[in-house]
Amino acid sequence: MRAQEITFLKLVQGDKQFQVPLYQRTYSWGREQLKRLWEDVGELVDQHLSGEPTAPHFLGSVVLAPGQIQAGGVQRWLVVDGQQRLTTLMLAFAALRDHLRSTGDERGVDRVHRQVLVNEFHEGLDHYRLLPTQADREAYTACVRSRAEAGGSDNVGAAYRFFRGAFAEGHEAGDERWTATVETVLKDLLSIVEITAEPGDNVYRIFESINNTGVGLSQSDLLRNYVFMLLPKRGERVYQELWLPMQQSLGPKNLELLVWLDLIVRGNSKAKQSEIYREQQKRLQSLAGDEGALQYEVEQLAERGRRFLRIVEPARESSPKLRAVLERLAAWGGQTHYPLALHLLDLVDAGRTTPDDAAEALRYVESYLVRRLICQTPTTGLNRIFMEAPTNLETDRPAAEAVRRFLSGRRRRWPSDEELRTAIHSKPFYWSGRPPQRSYILRRLEESYRPSEPVDFAKAALSVEHVLPQRPAAAWLQLLDEETEENQSPQELHDLLVHTLGNLTLTGDNSKLSNHPFERKQQILESSALRMNLEIAEAKRWGKAEILDRADRLTDRAVELWPGPIGGIKPVGEESPGWTELRAALVVMPSGTWTTYGDVAELIGSHPVAVGAYLGSNPSLIGAYRVLTVEGKISPSFRWPEGSDRQPPQELLASEGIRFDSWGRAHRSQRLSAAELATLLGKDVAQPVAQDPLPEGEDSAAAERFRTQLRKNWPDAHDAVLAALDFWRRQGGYVNYGRFEETSCFPMLDAGTSHRHHLMWPVGIYPVSGTVEVVFQYLKDRSPFDDTEQRRELLNRLNKIEGIDLPEAKLELRPSFPVRVFAEHGEEICGVLDWFVHTAALDLAQRD
């Protein structure tokens, strides 16, 4: 095998084709891998634009084996390893080409297409520089060909949409050189090691050996080995007295984190965790031969390790005020604040600030993080802000004042009191951050009442409760009908209010409260130990006015708990984060889907009229034409820009696969709700744990509730549903039930081994609302249905049954069909369940 380092452009140029063999898995990069790659690209772009020397970024290796050459054909290479990187970069170039087209740069379009994506003078499959596995081929070629269905629901489509959005946002924010610089970086500053096998090599054996390696050394392991190689005389004593105690107290993950943080607080704000060893080695190599200096470096690291322990285990901190705020940040979770917190503890221990001053500084950090979450400020660049803080704080003023001034910087987006009030009134807080962070904010608001007998939150099993229920009964909608605006339905008003902070509280009686009328909820909340629940129980009704009044009261408490930036006023001319989120939502929509102005308004905490006005003023935004009226029609006010040669919006949507009826209404099954948009954006919007199945075996009381509810609401489907569940049990599965008032049902299968469970379920059945959810959202993380083709096969088998019409664009969501389908097609549904069990069993046999 031969190896050489090469740029991406040089790798792909020429009449050649990279074929991904069938034994390779399908394309699997998700949002996190794409974000990491784009952050690396962004750093190179920034360096290049600022005139800094820009070294190529090492992307990894690609292992190739020569394929057959036909007369007059292209040189074929089998991609033994590295297909994920190759496919990702090709999709990035397809997105770049289409971005250049949207800006009118036809020469750029032609250049990228010919240089990178295709073999210009070849036809058929030879036309493509990259030929993925057959499962990914159609989605990939749709992107290369710029077909209407490009950007579908699978991973290939999602990656293409990610890069389209990234180019659009970067173009908006950057100068005129930005796009050209990105192209330069992608072509010439991403370094790949090309490893080429010789003819006759056993390609599959090479693939196996690459993908069956043992556990590699961590970055901290490599650093330790390097340091002690330079300590031939003092090594054993330094290891026993300094390194080993540090390693044992921190554990491997925190030790690696410490070594990275050590670089950050020393001023290397761009250090990557994947390059700790190289950066530390570069810093220490000048000390080779001076064992005393090296020992001092280890002593300094061990001392910083003890400070770091006070961050991850706040009980070790001796100052009460500092310990309290460290405990709050630990409860908040995440590692974003670590660089600044460690720097502040360095200052405290060096006598350069007081514990109380450091505590006040960290209170500003807490406020900054909480306000951004409530206001749903994009997290892009948040880690970078905290990595730059240690070296950018002003040193001629108290630490707390310096931190507040730093975080108040214009580009650091610390929401003002006005923005906080608006967000608490209108943003869907229930979709903000992670569940523990939402609970933390509600807990702090409860503590602000300063009750004489505070609740022990560590012991109380509390969860977030919607006072106005997520699934309201008719009585709730009748109440809301009194407060609707002109042309607004009670359901639309409900959707705008239900997830806002004013409608949320903490309770240990979530399953009891459910979607009962407010009078029944009052009775339960009156016995609560939480002051904010007693306050809710004092209301005579619970509608829009009460929710907004409570939002006002909670805002006053939030402003007191979490102070704002210096000045406290939103900068003039700064765009609302809601519009940023709107654009991101349009980008993540797969082709073949649509949504409404109301759904987008619910997602971003706005109003349908404001959303319509924004899109009417910006019709060229990616996906703007996919936002329709609540009836599924093109809004009369939506127009392409003057002089545009694009198809009429309805024709364009139809070419993507949207079905319209004779009245011009889009098919409702292809509509994305606000919750589905939030899911595609990566927000945590899964249903409450109590509604999802737990591996506890069958509950006879819950089973009886399910049967009773099904018989009462859907009598025609009752017998067929129970027959299908009995069939499931005979196939080796079991049935579990939710714990809310509507007792949902889940046919469970454990496709694991005696040592390791592998739980999955194909559907959730809801006996009151009468829906059957197909849980692709969960299956996509469970083998074998983590393969898009297997989920597509499940969808296709279900869609052959009359009455079921699941859109392919929802292969990562939870589309549903009516439970009444069981009444006439129970046997066909059992056939699909049988296939599901067989597929899972075959996968288990292959894994074993």
From TrEMBL:
Residues 585-657 form the Methylated-DNA-[protein]-cysteine S-methyltransferase DNA binding domain. Residues 414-555 form the GmrSD restriction endonucleases C-terminal domain. Residues 10-228 form the GmrSD restriction endonucleases N-terminal domain. This is DUF262 domain-containing protein. InterPro entries: GmrSD_C, GmrSD_N, MethylDNA_cys_MeTrfase_DNA-bd, MethylDNA_cys_MeTrfase_DNAb, WH-like_DNA-bd_sf. SUPFAM superfamilies: Methylated DNA-protein cysteine methyltransferase, C-terminal domain. Pfam families: DNA_binding_1 (PF01035), GmrSD_C (PF07510), GmrSD_N (PF03235). The lineage of its organism: Bacteria, Bacillati, Actinomycetota, Actinomycetes, Kitasatosporales.
